[in-house]
Each structure stands twice: as structure tokens, then as C-alpha cells.
Design a protein that fits this description.
- It is built from 15 helices and two strands.
- The C terminus is likely disordered.
- By secondary structure, the chain is an all-alpha fold.
């Protein structure tokens, strides 16, 4: 658990950087662009990089073999580059330079995200992975809270300060990870996948396909609500901007509080059972929001929804890893981010189009329906989310 908390610094740095990026880069873009739709598109660049690069990087790290390990070389290259470009983003003087810096930052972040997350199952016994995922997501949630709190104060002092601070956080996280985690010593089964043995098609068995579909559908529901909730609150419920934005923090706060307990429940009762409970619970919460009449009741439901989302999100990554071999952890990490990125790209415009046709009242019906589709996919999976000896890697020994 000590190494898991130390690994959490990597996730902490990723979370704090993206939170600051999503909060303040739109304000930079607004100086040059008048179209909100175009600004929104520019802010999805990271998802396109995740769509194409992260699966490839994750798979590549499975086959990397250096004196630093399999994953660490990508951290040692990507994190300094990310720190550099994060720090430079606020020092743009034109739209072209801003876009170039955004793309360079996104590319750099994509180099080390999948390998960083892959380190968790590398160094954690299968039975403890949901607990470990709860810890690193808890660290990520704290990073997001700090980004919005301390980052806002730094931004008031000077728009460059939060980005410079984020760059130092990334470098500090890299120092912690490089000093505390030695892959050849700490990885449970240090194996290098042979090129001819590993391909994406070979990973797509029946269980994996239905699990990836489930992940896609529940992220469609979640991403759509996250992106459009403020508009829903102001247009459907008559809230002002601040009330709507503040209400969504109840969902995020509950997720952070329940991150570690959700991992514990996954280890005790099984990943699939806890995810099923989360999907059913969140579907009912989204459905109930359609009949909310007071802000207090809305925020209570969002608190409950955040707890159910923790049950889903904390256990889903360990579940997708458990259905493959240890030698394919990086590849399956890439597949996980592939489908979640597809959902992030597809969900807001799709649900926005439905809102254009049917009004804002359709939002939470659609989110609930997406959870229903995820439930159907989960029920098609016979795997219980626990690894069997057949799923352990043989590979090439690196020791």
C-alpha cells in the first residue's frame, strides 16, 4: 500500500494538470475565438490524442525492456516534456502559438498516462487492485480539488502561476516515482511480451468486448451529464450559473470520499457485483433527478450518484485488467482509455443534438438509458472479475 500511495503522486499530477487545463485554457481561447462550439472542439484535443496514441503507447510499453523497466522510460521522457509545455501554455501571444502549445502538451501527456496507470496492476496483487485503484483515484480527486481551489487563487494573482505550479508538481511526481518504484524489483511478474504474441485483435474475446461496451455506455452517460449539467441547471431548473456549477461539485466530492471504500468493497465482494450495484444505482439516481423540484434534493441525489459512480469507476479498470494476462496490462490499459475517450468525444454532441430536438428534460433520461445499456452488457459477461491462473503471464523473464 505504501508504494500505491507513492504511485498516487503520478495520478495526482495528471489530475491536477488536466483540471487546470480544462478550467483556464477555455479563457485563453476566448480571447481569440467567438464561437463556443469551436472552443469546445479545441478542448477535446486530448481525447483525440488518447484515442490514437494511448492504446499504442500502452501496448508499446508491454514490449519495452530497458534498465529502467517497461513503463518508467515513458514517464522519464513524457513528464519533463509535459512540465515544459504546461508551463509555456499561458505565455502564448497568438492563437497559432496557443494551439501549438496545447497540442505539444497533449502529446506529452499521452506519452506517460497509460504507462503510469499500468504501473498500478504491475506492482499490486490482483486481489488488492481495486483497493489500490481507489487510492490513486482518491489522490486524483484531491488533485482536482486543489486545482480548482488553490489554482483559482493563483490565477487571480497571475494567469501563468497555476500552470507553472502544475509543472513543478509533475516534476516532483516524476522524482517520487523514479526514486520509489524500481520495476525489476517491485513488479510482481516482470515479463516482456513478444511482438508476435500480442495484438489488439487477440485481446478482444467475448468478455472483453462486452466489458468495453459497458465502459463505453456508462462513460456516455457520465460524460454527457458532466458536460451539459450546468446548461441543464440553468435552462431546465432555473438555477443561476454559480448554483448549477456548485451543485455538480457534490457529485465529485462524493466520488472522492467513496473512492477508497469502493475499492475495499470490490476486493471483498467482487468487482463485477460492485459495478453492477453502481450501474443500477446511478441509473435510478439519473432517473429520479427528472422529478426533482428543489436544489437541496438535487444535491442529495448528486451526492448519492457520486458514491455509485465511485463503485463503477474504481472497479472498472481493475476488471478490464483482470480479464487478460499480466503481459497485456499496458495494452488493456490503452483499450480502456480508447473506449472512454470515444465516449468523451461522442457523448456531449450526441446528447446535445437530442436536447436540440426534445429539450433539456431529455438529458437525464438519456443518461439513465446509457446506464441501462451498460447493465445489459455487464449481464452478458460471465467472468466475475477475478483473475485465474490461466490469466497469469508466462512471457520472457526480465530478472
Amino acid at each position: 500500500m505504501k508504494k500505491t500511495w507513492l504511485l498516487g503522486f503520478g495520478f495526482f499530477s495528471i489530475s491536477i494538470t488536466w483540471s487546470l487545463y480544462n478550467a483556464f485554457v477555455p479563457l485563453f481561447l476566448e480571447r481569440f475565438l467567438t464561437s463556443t462550439a469551436l472552443i469546445g472542439f479545441m478542448m477535446t484535443i486530448d481525447n483525440y490524442f488518447a484515442l490514437f496514441l494511448q492504446p499504442w503507447i500502452g501496448r508499446r510499453s508491454d514490449r519495452t525492456n530497458t534498465r529502467f523497466g517497461r513503463r518508467m522510460p515513458y514517464l522519464l521522457i513524457g513528464m519533463p516534456l509535459a512540465a515544459l509545455f504546461v508551463a509555456l501554455v499561458p505565455f502564448h501571444n497568438s492563437l497559432l502559438l496557443l494551439v501549438l502549445l496545447m497540442m505539444a502538451m497533449n502529446l506529452s501527456m499521452s506519452l506517460f498516462r497509460s504507462p503510469t496507470i499500468s504501473l498500478m496492476p504491475d506492482i499490486t496483487p490482483e486481489a488488492q487492485r481495486t483497493k489500490a485503484n481507489g487510492i490513486i483515484n482518491f489522490m486524483g480527486g484531491i488533485g482536482a480539488i486543489l486545482a480548482f481551489g488553490a489554482g483559482s487563487m493563483l490565477y487571480r494573482a497571475d494567469p501563468s502561476f497555476p500552470f507553472i505550479a502544475s509543472a513543478f508538481v509533475i516534476l516532483f511526481a516524476m522524482f517520487i516515482l523514479q526514486r520509489s518504484i524500481k520495476e525489476r524489483r517491485d513488479t510482481l511478474s516482470y515479463t516482456i511480451s513478444e511482438k508476435q504474441e500480442l495484438n489488439f485483435k487477440g485481446q478482444l474475446d467475448r468478455t472483453t468486448i462486452f466489458l468495453l461496451l459497458a465502459i463505453f455506455f456508462w462513460f456516455v452517460g457520465y460524460q454527457g451529464v458532466e458536460a451539459l449539467f450546468t446548461l441543464y441547471g440553468t435552462n431546465q431548473l432555473g438555477m443561476d450559473d454559480a448554483e448549477a456549477g456548485f451543485s455538480l461539485t457534490f457529485f465529485s466530492l462524493a466520488f472522492v470520499i467513496f473512492a477508497i471504500p469502493s475499492g475495499w468493497m470490490g476486493a471483498k465482494f467482487g468487482k463485477k457485483k460492485v459495478i453492477l450495484a453502481g450501474v443500477v444505482g446511478l441509473a435510478l439516481v439519473f432517473l429520479a433527478i427528472n422529478w426533482v423540484e428543489t436544489i437541496v434534493m438535487l444535491r442529495i441525489l448528486l451526492l448519492i450518484g457520486g458514491a455509485f459512480w465511485a463503485c463503477i469507476n474504481i472497479n472498472s479498470y481493475p476488471f478490464i485488467v483482470s480479464t487478460g494476462t499480466d503481459a497485456a496490462i499496458g495494452t488493456r490499459t490503452g483499450l480502456y482509455y480508447l473506449v472512454s475517450s470515444l465516449a468523451a468525444i461522442a457523448s456531449p454532441p450526441l446528447l446535445g443534438l437530442l436536447i436540440d430536438f426534445f429539450g433539456y428534460s431529455i438529458l437525464f433520461y438519456c443518461a439513465s438509458a446509457a446506464m441501462g445499456l451498460a447493465l445489459v452488457c455487464l449481464l452478458m459477461i460471465k467472468h466475475n472479475g477475478e483473475s485465474t491462473p490461466a490469466h497469469q503471464s508466462v512471457g520472457l523473464s526480465g530478472k
